[in-house]
Amino acid sequence: MIQADTIVHFYYDLENENEYEATVTNYLNGLRDPLRTKEIISIGDPFMSKTGFTVRVAVRFNVLLDERKSCRHLDDYVSFVFPTVKNNIAGELISTQNLHLTYVRNQAQPKEKKINWEELESWGRF
């Protein structure tokens, strides 16, 4: 897996302008893989748009991307961040600013060996 640390700007449509900050915060905190909310940078004031009330949001995400055989370097994954975010948020995506990309690989944990105390005692070590 590849993890992209990115700042995302997007418009979020509201049903009404009452408690809009709580509504947007609940939405962002409820997002699951491949997007993880790291920090809410700003939630703008609601304004009237073609679809009703809209608010501009800036948030820092960790975006998880699957590794691809066609990508040889981390820089090759930059072009996949925008479409991944666009497909997984509600609202109109304005931009993504990639800060950092890293490999995320699950390292196999070494198995904890069970100690046979009786055997050690028979060898005279304890």
Structure description:
By secondary structure, the protein is α+β, with helices and mostly antiparallel strands. The chain has one domain: Alpha-Beta Plaits. The chain contains three helices and five strands, in the order βαβββαβα. Strands 1, 2, 3, 4 and 5 form a five-stranded antiparallel β-sheet that branches. A hairpin with a 2-residue loop joins strand 3 and strand 4 (about 50-65). The mean pLDDT is about 85.
What is the radius of gyration computed over CA atoms, rounded to a whole number of angstroms? 23 Å
CATH architecture: 2-Layer Sandwich
Distance between the termini: 46 Å
Biggest pleated-sheet summary: 5 strands, antiparallel
CATH domain fold name: Alpha-Beta Plaits
Shape descriptor reads: elongated
Q: Give the overall average pLDDT.
A: 86
Relative helix content: 10-25%
The CATH class assignment is Alpha Beta
The number of domains:
1
Low-confidence stretches: none
How many helices? The count is 3
Could you provide a short overview of the structure?
This protein has 126 residues and is of the alpha+beta class. Helix content is 21%, strand content 40%.
Topology:
Layout: E1 2-14, H1 20-29, E2 35-43, E3 47-49, E4 52-65, H2 78-88, E5 92-103, H3 117-122
Summary keywords:
126 residues, alpha+beta, Alpha-Beta Plaits, five-stranded antiparallel sheet, 3 helices
